[in-house]
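Thread: quick sanity check before group meeting

JM: Hey all, I'm pulling together slides for Thursday and realized we never actually wrote out the predicted structure for the chain we discussed last week. Dropping the sequence here so it's in one place. If anyone has concerns about the input, flag it before I start.
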Amino acid sequence: MFDTLTILSCLNSCLDTTTLNRLKTIVTAMLTMTGRITMLGISRWTNEGGSYRTVQRFFNTKIPWEKIHWRLISQCFLDADDTFILAGDETVVTKAGKTTYGLNRFFSSIYGKTVPGLDFFTLSLISTKQRTSYPLMTQQMTHTEDKKNDKKRNYCRRS
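JM (edit): ok, ran it. Output follows.
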């Protein structure tokens, strides 16, 4: 089993001390929790220094996740003898509701039709030796009404 706190200590160059300490506290709590993961639940499972307000502050902090992913992957999983492929893929996650940010209708190849959901793009480093994907970046893709209206206007102009 990995020693989580030792692994996270390699992030000194990516995060300031306060944010790194909060991350270590929250990760330790999340790995020991059972049931739903909520901010209140995390604060209840933390040791000293993990109040509900501390958890809120952590989740309100802007964190360079791409740098953190790269740092963890390069420190723990990269092998000099391996060959890697950089790949990107867009994924649709179905979602019910009407007020979720980015909710729209997207084509899902699994269902073979457009479905209501959220659209995510992930860039991954794929190890050919271990046949494992290491996600470097995941970003929610949003499609604004302006783009839809522009497409409709351009279509109407051509006719």
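AS: nice. The first helix runs from residue 4 to 8. The chain has a mean pLDDT of 84.
JM: adding both to the slides.
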